[in-house]
Amino acid sequence: MYKVFFITFGCKVSQYETELLRSCFSEAGFAPADKSADADVIVVNSCTVTGSGDSKSVYAVRKLRKDVPEAVIVLTGCMPQAAPEAAEKVTEADIVTGTKERAKLPSLVLAALAEKRRIIDIPPLARDDTFEEIAYVPTDSHTRAFVKIQDGCECYCTYCMIPYARGRFRSKPLDDLRREVAMLAAHGRREIVLTGINIAFYGHREGLRLADAVEVCCCTEGIERVRLGSIEPEMMLPDDLDRLAALPQFCPQFHLSLQSGCAATLKRMNRRYTPEEYASLVEQIRSRFPEAAFTTDIMVGFPRETEEEFAESMAFAERIGFSRIHVFQYSPRQGTPAAKMEQIPDAVKHERADRMKALGERLAREYMQGLVGRTVPVLFEREKSPDFHCGHAPDYTLIKISRKNSKKSLRNQIFYVTIEGVGDDCCLGRIASEDGN
Ligand code: SF4
């Protein structure tokens, strides 16, 4: 039996798709390898969101070729789809495929093994592409499951390669979603995170809204929590928020992609909202979900970002009071409009990234300090730490309680926890009761 090992670079969607590939290979009779050195086949699932994502994938393939010379090495995912010619030149890869027709990868590997030939198979994206379903069975025992409901993006932010790697908007049909979530519930999942390339556009071509997908998940027996992955702000309308607010299973954690808090920078990025529109959306959400947490991505060092623009971005982040900020330094992606704009020096980018990260850390601490004294329902997860039971509150704050106070396993159960303090990157608490009293 051939053994297969996976390496993933990039976002939650890539990680989720790697899980689907793992299941496809298992169904096709491959066994999992614990490490690359033991594998007959190594699949490198690439990412192209940043320039470093591309180079990490190529570096990994080249290193694996030297370290595991006999293995069949597969380079797949966004990088080959967005830059097929560059991917083909990575001659250390025996098989190169893109983001389409993933389910046939095991059969391509078997062909490469039998015929000892190199295979390049990157079908181009097409206007009429539909959402690609890959049947899978979970191979782990996690509490939380990611479900990809959407693919593609047509927004063409000036820094981003994703529209070239993923194609047009397309969405998982509601019936398929219903089936997948029921299957996950039957495998013990209690929490669903809806994910995709741009989930705010869920159902864009089918006349559906993101709230339709959330409602399907919330109505599935056994599912107690439903979260959204990263969302673009411009598609969240008051009616959608009303529908979400009516669902007790919906978790009020909003990862609203900001990128910059400066109107001029947003315009150069071709983002489709102003800081004021963003702030107004946050207010609308807070009026329906008073305990909502807001997290975001902020890019620093975008072409021509002045010190004043950066200062505006910092001030805006402080005004919103994010509970977490993922800070990215801009890196030019060949073929995008921003790569042709006037760039700013790396040293300036590093320095701004450090300042934004420091702000994010302070805001996160302040947010968590504000939770002290509250009692919140916590869904406990895998028992990884010898000292703590760990789980998440509805707003996705990580909560830890000492095992000294409660030795039995709490895994996959919800308990109310009173928050007593703040630790590194988490809140510390004690179990109040199973019902919050
Ligand atoms: S919304 Fe912009 S940043 Fe997000 S995937 Fe689409 S083009 Fe890229």
Keywords:
OB fold (Dihydrolipoamide Acetyltransferase, E2P), five-stranded mixed barrel, pyruvate-formate lyase- activating enzyme, binds iron/sulfur cluster, single chain, Rossmann fold, alpha/beta, 13 helices, six-stranded parallel β-sheet, 437 residues
What is the fold's blueprint, element by element?
Blueprint: E1 3-8, H1 12-27, E2 31-32, E3 41-46, H2 51-67, E4 72-77, H3 78-82, H4 84-88, E5 95-97, H5 105-115, E6 119-121, E7 144-151, H6 162-166, E8 170-171, H7 174-186, E9 191-196, H8 210-218, E10 225-228, H9 238-245, E11 253-255, H10 263-269, H11 275-288, E12 293-300, H12 307-320, E13 324-329, H13 346-369, E14 375-380, E15 388-392, E16 398-402, E17 414-423, E18 426-433
Parallel strand pairs: 1-2, 1-3, 3-4, 4-5, 5-6, 7-9, 9-10, 11-12, 12-13, 16-18
Antiparallel strand pairs: 7-8, 14-15, 14-17, 15-16, 17-18
The structure holds iron/sulfur cluster (SF4).
Word description of this protein:
The chain is an alpha/beta fold and 437 residues long. The chain has 3 domains: 3-121, 3-Layer(aba) Sandwich (Rossmann fold); 144-369, pyruvate-formate lyase- activating enzyme (Alpha-Beta Horseshoe), CATH 3.80.30.20; 375-434, Nucleic acid-binding proteins (OB fold (Dihydrolipoamide Acetyltransferase, E2P), Beta Barrel), CATH 2.40.50. It is 34% helix and 22% strand. It has helices at 12-27, 51-67, 78-82, 84-88, 105-115, 162-166, 174-186, 210-218, 238-245, 263-269, 275-288, 307-320, 346-369; strands at residues 3-8, 31-32, 41-46, 72-77, 95-97, 119-121, 144-151, 170-171, 191-196, 225-228, 253-255, 293-300, 324-329, 375-380, 388-392, 398-402, 414-423, 426-433. The strands form 4 sheets. Strands 2-1-3-4-5-6 form a 6-stranded parallel beta sheet, with helices on both faces. Helix 7 (174-186) runs parallel beside helix 8, helix 8 (210-218) packs parallel to helix 9 (238-245) and helix 12 runs parallel beside helix 13. The mean pLDDT is 93. The structure holds iron/sulfur cluster (SF4). Residues 153, 155-157, 160, 162-163, 197-198, 232 line the site of iron/sulfur cluster.
